[in-house]
Every structure is written in structure tokens, then in C-alpha cells.
Specification:
The structure is a single chain. The chain has about 240 residues and is an alpha/beta fold. It has a domain of about 160 residues: 3-Layer(aba) Sandwich (Rossmann fold). The chain contains six helices and eleven strands.
């Protein structure tokens, strides 16, 4: 589970500071996808960066599996991301020289001791995830041999290599047409359910919101409304 509790984030702006996230609280439960929407510049990406432990908030708590990530130092936050958080960036950022399978297996080599002894298990995990995202027959292809939708599927599979309890997804359909975008949303919803992850998903694509388990709306960094699984609308 991931819970943001009264989180505020500001950035310096000359002699003053700009508030990017303003006392925001939300929870994403295991097996659910919570969408974060709002106009450009509303603080969506900043909120996701805080949830990903990439930025420390000015105040508030970021609870990931009951651990307050806002209190961790840089190394501890890095370890938490490696072990418990999967991040799907807006751009797939795949390494041009690596095959789809290698994009995943390389994650085993990052920062944790004993990677050599885990290589066989990592290869098996990579194959299972590529099968799960429908790319089992494309595991040996490099990014330039894959479509935009296929590259995004590799991106999602890579984020799941560490079997995360939390998945954070930033605008996964922004570079895709409506049909391929819908397929990516289908995939995220299915994998969230099957793997019991707690997923936060930033999106500008309102057509997909009715399928989400919960929706929160940000304006100027503040949570203005939310819709939970009951379908009831609540205002902050």
C-alpha cells in the first residue's frame, strides 16, 4: 500500500517559493489503480515524484508498506525504490542496444549484492513478464524493431522486475493512439489485479477514468475532488 499523508512540496523561485503540492492526502490500496488528473502544471508529476521517493517533500508522510519514505536518506530511498517500487515513465527510455529481454534482466545488476547468483532467476522472471505483457515472441527484438505500444509494454514489464508492492505510472498513453492507449490501460489494470500492486497513474486521458478504482483531481497542487470505488464524489 502507498499512502500520502498531508504532503507539501515547494520549489525556490527567486526570493520566494512556489508550492507544487499543497497538503495532499491519498491512499492506493493493493490491487487497485488510482488515477491522478488535472490541468498542465497542476502538480501531478511532482506528486508522483514524491510518491516515488525521487523528491523529498517539505512536510507530510509518504508511507510505502508502512515505512515513511519521507524520512529516509538518499541511499535508503534508493534501496526502497529498488526493492518495493516500480516506475513507468512517460517515455519508455529503453536502451537502444539491448533486446526486450535484456532491458528487464539488466535490472538485476543494479545496486544489489549477489546479482550473479540471481541471474538465472532474473532471466526466468523476465520471460514470465514478457509473456504477461504479450511480448513473449518479441523478447529478442531491440527498441527500433518494436512499435510504440510494444515499447511501452516493455517499459511496464521492466517496472515489475522487482515484484514491487507499489507501481507509479506517468502518462502511459500520451504517445499512443486511442486504441493502443486503451490496450496499455487494460494491461495496467490486469497486472495490478494479478500482482496485487498499489498503483498510482497520472493521466490526461479522461476517457479511461471510469475504469479506474479511484480518481483524484489536482488544481494548483491541491486535491479538489476524488472519486472512490463507491463512485461517490468527495471534495477536499
Amino acid at each position: 500500500m502507498i499512502q500520502l499523508d498531508n504532503v507539501t512540496l515547494t520549489f525556490p523561485d527567486g526570493d520566494s517559493r512556489i508550492t507544487a503540492v499543497d497538503h495532499v492526502s491519498l491512499i492506493a490500496h493493493p490491487g487497485t489503480v488510482t488515477a491522478i488528473t488535472g490541468p498542465s502544471g497542476s502538480g501531478k508529476s511532482s506528486l508522483l515524484a514524491v510518491a516515488a521517493t525521487l523528491i523529498r517533500p517539505d512536510s507530510g508522510r509518504v508511507l510505502i508498506d508502512d515505512l515513511d519514505a519521507a524520512r529516509l536518506d538518499a541511499k535508503e530511498a534508493s534501496d526502497l525504490r529498488r526493492d518495493s517500487v516500480g516506475i513507468v515513465f512517460q517515455q519508455s527510455n529503453l536502451l537502444p542496444s539491448l533486446t526486450a529481454r535484456e532491458q528487464l534482466t539488466v535490472m538485476n545488476e543494479l545496486g544489489r549484492r549477489g546479482s550473479r547468483g540471481r541471474r538465472k532467476a532474473a532471466a526466468t522472471r523476465a520471460d514470465e513478464l514478457l509473456d504477461a505483457v504479450g511480448l513473449g515472441d518479441h523478447r529478442d527484438k531491440r527498441p527500433h524493431q518494436l512499435s510504440g505500444g510494444q515499447r511501452q509494454r516493455v517499459n511496464i514489464a521492466r517496472a515489475l522486475m522487482n515484484d514491487p508492492s507499489v507501481m507509479l505510472v506517468d502518462e502511459p498513453t500520451s504517445a499512443l493512439d486511442q486504441e493502443r492507449g486503451a490496450q496499455i490501460i487494460d494491461l495496467i489494470l490486469r497486472l495490478t489485479d494479478e500482482l496485487d500492486t498499489s498503483t498510482l497513474l497520472v493521466t490526461h486521458d479522461l476517457v479511461h477514468l471510469p475504469r479506474m478504482h479511484a480518481v483524484v483531481h489536482l488544481v494548483d497542487g491541491r486535491l479538489t475532488s476524488s472519486v472512490g470505488e463507491s463512485g461517490e464524489l468527495a471534495f477536499a
